[in-house]
Amino acid sequence: MTTTAYAAATSTSMAATAVMLPRLPTVTTTARFSALPNLPARSFSTSIKQVSESKRSSLFQIKASEDASSAPDATELFNDLKEKWDALENKSTVIIYGGGAVVAVWISSILIGAVNSVPLLPKILELVGLGYTAWFVYRYLLFKSSRKELATDIESIKKKIAGTE
């Protein structure tokens, strides 16, 4: 019943659309390139579809479970955010920092777009990044003693940020 109603609605909307469109002269031109061969249209047989579906089903077997902790409810999420927002003392500071972060991302995207429009600059910057990555790997990751040095540097920076040093 619904498919016939849908088909009737679709056909009436198509008829209305066909009436509303102005008539334009139709010119059919077909461009054929001699360098490209004419290939037959692909037709997928049912055996190929069955093989692909059987592979797909064997690769992805997902079982649904009703675990309330895995999918938080939207009301729980909003209530949690509201509690955290109410617990903040300096709400204006958070708003200013958030707005500043949005503006910084916007300005950086404009800057990156400008750099990408300069002809050879993006490739040069990619080479600089590749060179720095190679130097970093050689300096800090290749040898065991330098890896320990990097780990101690990271720990000291963590302590400075946390304020425990």
Task: Describe this protein's structure.
By secondary structure, the protein is mainly α. It has 6 helices and no strands. It has helices spanning 2-20, 46-59, 74-87, 91-117, 121-141, 144-162. The N and C termini lie far apart (74 Å). The relative contact order is 0.02.
What's the topology here?
Layout: H1 2-20, H2 46-59, H3 74-87, H4 91-117, H5 121-141, H6 144-162
List keywords for this structure.
69% helix; single chain; disordered N terminus; 165 residues
Structure summarized in a few sentences:
The protein is mainly alpha-helical. It is built from six helices and no strands.
The share of residues in helices is 55-70%
Average residue pLDDT: 75
> What structural class is derived from the secondary structure elements?
mainly alpha
Q: How many DSSP-defined strands?
A: 0
Helix segment tally: 6
Helix-strand pattern, N to C? HHHHHH
Radius of gyration: 31 Å
Could you tell me how far the N terminus lies from the C terminus, measured between alpha carbons in angstroms?
A: 74 Å
Low-confidence parts: 1-19
Biggest sheet layout: none
Please indicate the percent range of residues in DSSP E strands (runs of 2 or more). under 5%
| Oligomer kind | single chain
Overall body shape: extended
